[in-house]
Records
---
Amino acid sequence: MQDPLIQRISHILSLSPAIIYAGRVDEPFYLTFISENLTTHFGFDTKICLRNPDFWRDLIHPDDVECVFDDYARISANGFHKHEYRLRKEDGEYLWVLDELRLVRDASGHPLEVVGSWLDITDRKETEEALQKSEKLFRDFFQTNPVATIVSSTDGVVHMVNPAFTGQTDFTAEEVVGRTAQELGFWQIPEDRERMVSAIQKFGFIDNLESQFYGKGGRPMTCLISSRAVDLGGDIRILSIVQDVTEQRKAEAALLKLDQAKTAFISTAAHELRTPLIAIVGYSELLENEAGLPLEEEQKQEYLSIIQSNAEILNRLVDDLLDVGRIQIGSSLGVVLKEAQLSEVIEKVVGSLRVKNERHRITVVHTNPLPERCWFDPGRITQVLYNLLSNAIKYSPQGGPIEIQTTTAPETVSFAIVDQGLGMSPELVENVFDRFYRGEAADAEIHGLGLGMGIVKQIIEDHGGEIVVKSCLGEGTTVTFTLPIKPEIATLKS
């Protein structure tokens, strides 16, 4: 009968996450004891393994053998050592282990045996490897990113800049790394930097802050600056992209000054922009004056929801204006193709509109399955679907059904947005893609700048697709557009 103490020790060892072993000190080294949990972790029978003096040596990954035995030789001098290497399981899979071993001596100081443990650290090593790959990916993306990008510390010291940044500002990397943005004179309008810093401290990011940014020699540039606070290896850094829009802004200003024909449009735009702005200001004042007139939480949330909704309207109007400005000067809308899922975009847009327009029934019908992956710009196609569906809602009676029909061909995906609303006259159909043309939509109860369809057409064409509108007064409208599936088919506007 086995000693109870031995039984208890064996039981404890069997539950340990680490495999305990002992071995000879002198050459040739081989194991004299292995805990029974070897079977649990590696699949080998302990008794059979102990009969094989080469057992441990045979398990070590061939690429690790030399360094393992080099390390093992040091234990005689240090009395303790730990190292990491790979051991083979019975099924052939290799696991990373942390091997901690200690030299046991007798009372006279003579070596008796080596006692050690193997702890499975495979998950940790895989995490480390993934982190290394992630860091490499970040650095590769950072260096190849065509948009000027800069990484700085929270106190403004520059740590990294990419080639696009040095090309845009005329500074070399050596001239900027290790210096502050203030020393380099990037910000000559303190309020702009304070605005960015304040937003990052409060929210962790800021998007499209338009500011005067200064390159080498004090050269001014109008830039859109987007910044994020990111964790890089445990250190908080500010990652910023700096998009030079100087020439774009000059062209837009010149176009606005010269284009007298848009006077009526400007008037309409002012009205459309003012309407949500008035709502935002009004409800903001109500919230601001809460001290004098306490509000219920439900009422505050309602006001905030109204402000958010109108801010979104305002933002969409501004985005439309900016897009039209780009089109007017012959610029691309910045379509960037990437591999993504059309189904996700559809679900996102439809879900958003269903929440905001509960009285309208929006259904999605797939004639055949959508491709698993497709090359397109998710943001821009979201814009297209949102615009077309919003139009269908605006020009449909309350509760009117709206349907999205998709059809997949070998090289393209077709979308049809079908409503049973007011429909359009032949004249409006003919001019529907003309910028600023509103036709019957000029009815004061139907808001809009008349820009959306022109932008939609440009986006689809920038993808290499086509768009067609069919409509009849009183019967509804169908807008059909196609998108190429593969990137080699899509032809982006240069």
---
Amino acid sequence: MNIRPLQLKRANPALALKLVLVNTVLCVGLSLTSTQALANEIKLPRLGDTVSGIVSKRQEYELGRTWLKAFRSRVREHDDPLMQEYLEQLLYDLATYSDLEDPRLELVIVNNASMNAFAVPGGVVGFHTGVFAFAEKEDQMASVLAHELAHLSQRHFARGLEAQRASSMVTLAGLLGSLVLAATAGGDAGMAAITATQALAMDSRLRYSRSNEQEADRIGLKTMERANRDPGAVAEMFETLLRATRYSGSRPPEFLLTHPVTERRIADARGRAMANSMRQYAENPEFYLMQSRALLALRTDNNLAIREFQAQLDNNIHRPEAVKYGLALAHTRAGNYKQARALLADLISSDPSQLSFHHADIELSIAQQQYPQALAKVNKLLRISPNNYPLIRLKSEVLWQAHRYEQASDVLTDLSRIRPEDPMVWYQLAEVRGLAGNISGVHQARAEYFILVGAFDRARKQLGLAIKLVAADFKRSAIIRQRLVDIAEMEERIERL
């Protein structure tokens, strides 16, 4: 039986979502003349009775996770397990020191050159890889995440709804929709969408209020202090954003459109950080390695990437090991395996404990089709760190490329139990199960993927196909029937919002 490849991120989440994001949300060039015109195009969940009281924490969570499904249906997340783990660890570390009560966080990474990060009710934090290009050190990037966590912990969304009621619901839809559009179509389109929405919202109703931003600054700075991170990095990041605005003329980073920065705001941040100005803060070398990965991901021209990294190396740039690392990755991607091998050998020799170097070495072995060597290397590392997400993903890739499909399927099946909310794990599991001939397993994995992107009808169809194939297996049939019940309950919860 032939299994058609799953079309990644093309699912149309025809949920009975009442969260419909402005027609792919505020198309560029769309001319609306009033907030009423916008309101006519937006259908948001009613959030219970928002007219009579503040939205509950449960409703907030459900709304955010519903929006996440819609977001994932339209936006291709950046699939880099190393970067994912690095940013998740950073986010959860900051959350530990924040005022956030609900620990359920979900990080989504988008490969986009724009400087943007955002927080959505329900613990959803979005991050563009372009942030790496603006941040000069980890604490500057951490300050952005701490600020977004502050918006979540202080429930600024719910408080805004209480203050502005129906008009806020309209402008929130524009904001969330603009995030989708920005990640899908690029920065220009997203900025146009946000700008249009702001105009319709009459001044600042789209974004968090000035007092919300000031509070997020204050709370975020406290989080940085508690986490033993440099609070001065907050002002440094603001200054970087202002410089970017001056250099870009009329094209400010998207982040500034929803988080406007003023000289006073910078002064306030610097003043609050003065008490710790004499302290020394350790730097994390891993940041610079991830920065190189991000910069490479933003380049489509391998030769250009090689020239850029080589130029930095020739100019004795700061952090040469990170530049060498980026150069090795670029050479691997370009098929220059000899050059990549030499660079990685030098890096591993200088720091044998750095996992990122070994990860790149294994990626190189895979590219060279040296599968036994690659498998031996990754198994050795997994004995040291058995639950390491990037290594598990790397092992599945080695087995996949070596045509050991059943073993790859077993690895990904185990991983799906650890990361059941990761769409990419389910997507890859569906693919490798198809190659292994596990047709019912293909349908079940596809169903889980479609659930995570909000395509409930397609998920239900996949489970219907699966249950026909396992009709004689009572246990497996019961599991599938229960999943169909789960889907119905998800739809019902969304309908009740």
